[in-house]
Amino acid sequence: MFSLSVLFTTEILLCIRNKNHRNFVLLKLLDVSLFIKKNINKFKIWYIDYFNLKDSTDLKYIKDGKLLIKPGENPDENTLILKTINNIEINEDVYENYAFIYDNKTANDLDEIEIIKNMENYKCDYTFLLLSVKLDNDVKYILDFKNPYNYLMINNIINNNFLNYYLNLTHNVNLTNKYIINIMTNKMQTYNLDETQYIILKKDEICINKY
C-alpha cells in the first residue's frame, strides 16, 4: 500500500512539473477502470441490468387450476403466485426458464433480486427420475417439472391448484378429485401421495404435508 502511494504521488509531481494534466487524467481513469475490473472478478460483484430484469420476469396468478386475468391487489389464500424468470445473465452465466410457486403467506419472503444474484442456491439438489400422476379414471400422466420451466426450486408449492394448472398446460386435461402421485428422485428416494397431501420442495428433500 505504501509503495502504491509513493508511486501515485510521484506521478502527480511529474505530471504537474511537465504540465501534462491531460495525460495524468487519462492515466488515472485507466487505473480506476483496471481497479474496478479486478475487483469485480475478485469479489464477484454482481451487476444486474434492472430494466432487463423487469423484461425478463413474468407474474401469473393461479386459482382452481386456472390463470386469473385480474387477480386483484391481495390474492386470497387459495391463490398461487407463479413467478417466472427468463434469460437472466449473472457473471457470464445465463439462467433461463426458472419458476417460483408461492402463496400470499410466503410472497414477502421472495426477494427477487436476492434470488437472481444467488440462483444456484435456490435450486433443489435433486431431480426427478420419475414423476407421474394417476387420475381416478386410472389414466397415468408423466410430468416433467423442468418443462416448460424448471419448477425444482426450493420452497415451491406443489398442490392440487398447481397440478390442475400444470396438467391443463402440458396435457390439456383436468385434475380429478382423487389422484395418486408417484415420485422417484435421482437420489433413489421414493414418494407416494394422494389428493389429501401437497408438496413443498426443499433444498435436499421433498416435504409432504396434509391439507
Topology:
Blueprint: H1 2-17, H2 21-43, H3 50-56, E1 57-63, E2 66-67, E3 80-85, E4 88-90, E5 93-95, E6 98-103, H4 112-117, E7 128-135, E8 140-142, E9 157-158, H5 160-171, E10 179-185, E11 190-194, E12 197-201, E13 206-210
Antiparallel strand pairs: 1-2, 1-3, 3-6, 4-5, 7-8, 7-10, 9-12, 10-11, 12-13
What is shown here, in short?
The chain is an alpha+beta fold and 211 residues long. It contains 5 helices and 13 strands.
Describe the structure.
The protein is of the alpha+beta class. It folds into two domains: 2-43; 50-210, no CATH class. It contains five helices and 13 strands. It has helices spanning 2-17, 21-43, 50-56, 112-117, 160-171; strands spanning 57-63, 66-67, 80-85, 88-90, 93-95, 98-103, 128-135, 140-142, 157-158, 179-185, 190-194, 197-201, 206-210. The strands form four sheets. It has a four-stranded antiparallel sheet with strand order 2-1-3-6. A four-stranded antiparallel sheet has the order 8-7-10-11, with no helix packed on it. A three-stranded antiparallel sheet has the order 9-12-13. Strand 1 (57-63) and strand 2 form a beta hairpin. It starts with a helix and ends with a strand. Mean pLDDT is 78; it is low at 1-7 and 41-51.
